[in-house]
Amino acid sequence: MTTQTTTAPLDAIIVGAGFAGLYMLHRLRKSGFNARVVEAGSGAGGTWFWNRYPGARVDIESMQYSYKFSDELAQEWNWSERYATQPELLTYVAHVIERFKLADGIQYNTRVNSAKFNDSTGLWDIDTNDGQVIQARHCIMATGCLSSTNEPSFPGQSSFKGETYHTGRWPREGVDFTGKTVVVIGTGSSSIQSIPEIAKQAKQLYVLQRTANYSVPAHNQPLDPAYVADIKANYGDLRARGLAQPLAYDINLNPKLCSELPPEEVRAELDRRWAWGGLPIYGAFADLLVDAKTNSIVADYMREKIRSIVKDAKTAELLSPKGTFGCKRVCVDTGYYQTYNLPHVELVDISQIGIEEITATGVSAGGRVIDTDVIVFATGFDAMTGSLDRINIRGRGDVALKDKWAAGPITYLGLMSAGFPNLFTITGPGSPSVLTNMIMAIEQHVDFITDCLEYLRANGINHIEPRHEVELVWGDHVQEVANGTLLYSCNSWYLGANVPGKPRVFMPYLGYPAYAEKCRDVAANGYEGFDLSAA
Ligand code: NAP
Question: Distance (Å, rounded) from C-alpha 226 to C-alpha 66?
């Protein structure tokens, strides 16, 4: 393919048209920068564009999982349910694009193959699948934390004659399971949301479980207009409460330690949280993620709930997670455990004997041969670094980011990496990102980057990059914070443990408020820890 270099270099190229890329474009345009978004998909929405599996909906309440930067937007938009569905989220995205006149700044169906810092021009050269080379002063990766699918390959997989789907790359036209036998591999959030919906159509459904996950009912429901009006009248209060909590999400954090409470109060707190539903269960006790005893009390409570819902004792036992509660991200479901009471749904334990083979007609797993028409891979993502690794990113001296990060990502604040001047990663590894209400983390990063670019312009500075010694200290701090919790005690995707061969490094930073304050201080001190140069 012939390459074509765009004439005038952009101030910034933004890779990805999800929530991060869209807000980044809006902010940069408002500040008078010449910016453009390139997006691999044929539409906007990022995660919500690709994850179209049945039952897909956000697991943070929509009144909080929505942009806060524009009060007009927040006031005029009406979510229909407590947890918005994937289609409704895309409608919101379309509204944002129209309202802020972003459409002409987004180039769809454009996958970035490589992004290379040109040592002689001091610009980034962005090479795309359609043969363009786009030059830009700044390259901003808004590629998402969970956008690169984890697709394990099993022996014989290509011989399978039926249909196969990955939850993270669901076909736009949907899938009809009516009358079919279906195997779902995996029991993470995507699987837990889709299984009740697939079961409504399938003739027979087998769920292949390697590790059981904790799931809390969503208690999803239409939003009560009075509740919405009440929030909208004081929206800033809700946002401020959320931003003051570790997950940048108001989970009504209980400041009390479980160990200080009498058993009946512990029970009452958990009952209240279970009845409310969703991720606020994380806020039950201040020591939930640091004290193993507290954690086991909550885990016991969860197992008791599973036993009370699932009628078959053996299935209930298999569905009961053994590990630390909340070490892997807790799932939020609608009728997940109840689905196993249906006669055509069967849980298959593959913890001892995994998937040995996929044949032309089915799957050999858990010591059984299961014939099936459809296999759904709900096997998750190469989280946080996967979407960056899949682009050939090269910094000063042609050094590949992937090589620099071979033993785990090295960043300062999850925003930049030494040797890669003017390359920003929105919600990159080393920032709170996936341990928050993502939209809040996105807005905080976009605001930081915009302020930074304004500062550079005002001071005649062309390049910014962190000092290597500073990013090493930050990396140690990220690990130290995680080490002070129970989050190292399982094989989560936070640690990269779900992808064979990936280094075991805790990638997100736990604690939004301290992080945001650190970023404010860094900026206030003239981007302390970064090298700024006019050259
Ligand atoms: P996930 O949590 O990583 O779950 C993947 C599942 O596939 C796990 O059960 C895993 O088993 C299994 N698996 C992976 N490789 C396997 C193999 N080779 N053989 C057998 N089983 C295998 O992925 P996910 O469900 O897509 O969720 C990822 C994250 O996306 C969530 O934690 C959440 O942050 C986000 N998400 C959010 C929503 C929402 O907002 N509503 C919905 C979906 C996803 P092991 O546990 O044994 O590895």
Answer: 19
344 and 450 belong to one structural domain: no
For residues 28 and 139, membership in a common domain is answered with: yes
CA distance 387 to 401: 12
The verdict on 137 and 177 lying in the same domain is: no
Could you tell me which of 377, 380, 359 has the C-alpha nearest to residue 368?
Answer: 359
Residue 72: inside a domain: yes
Using CB distances shorter than 6 Å, the residues near ligand 1 are 57-59, 146, 152, 167, 185-191, 193, 210-211, 329, 354-355, 378-381, 434, 493, 498
pLDDT(164) > 60: yes
- Tokens 């509660």 belong to which residue? 325
Tens of pLDDT, residue by residue over 21-34, are 999 999 999 999 99
Cα–Cα distance, 42 to 49 (Å, whole number): 9
- Are 358 and 406 in the same domain? no
Reported in sequence order, the residue ranges of 202-313 that DSSP labels E, i.e. its strands, are 204-209, 215-217
Q: Residues of the chain with pLDDT > 70: what percent?
A: 99
Distance (Å, rounded) from C-alpha 477 to C-alpha 475? Answer: 5
Q: Is residue 210 part of a domain?
A: yes
Label residues 68-92 b or e (16+ Cβ within 10 Å = b): beeeebbeebebebbbbbbebbbeb
How far away, in angstroms, is 282 Cα from ligand 1 center?
19
Q: How close is the Cα of 273 to the center of ligand 1, in Å?
A: 24
Give the distance (Å) from ligand 1 centre to CA of residue 17: 23
- pLDDT at residue 4, rounded to an integer: 62
Is residue 169 in some structural domain? yes
From the alpha carbon of 83, which atom of ligand 1 is closest?
41
Distance 186 CA to ligand 1 centre (A): 6
Query: What local confidence, expressed as pLDDT, does residue 360 receive?
Result: 98
Q: Locate all alpha helices (DSSP H) within 105-243, ordered by sequence.
A: 189-201, 225-233, 235-243
Residue range 484-531, pLDDT digits in tens:
999 999 999 999 999 999 999 999 999 999 999 999 999 999 999 999
- Stretch 205-211: mean pLDDT: 98
SS3 229: helix
Residues 274, 263: Cα–Cα separation, whole Å? 16
Tell me: do 346 and 229 sit in the same domain. no
Total-model pTM: 0.97
Say how many domains are in the chain: 3
203 shares its domain with 337: yes
- The residue from 380, 401, 424 where one domain ends is 380
The model's pLDDT over 407-451, given as tens digits with 9 standing for 90+, comes to 999 999 999 999 999 999 999 999 999 999 999 999 999 999 999
Say whether both 342 and 416 belong to one domain: no
**And the tokens for 129?**
């699948």
133 and 16 assigned to the same domain: yes
Q: Residue 491's pLDDT is what?
A: 94
**Which mutation among 47, 48, 66, 146 tests ligand 1's pocket best, with the greatest number of atoms within 8 A of CB?**
146
In a domain, 100, yes or no: yes
pLDDT of residue 5: 64
Residues in the chain, overall count: 535
Tell me the average pLDDT of the chain: 97
Residue ranges making up the domain that contains 281: 223-311
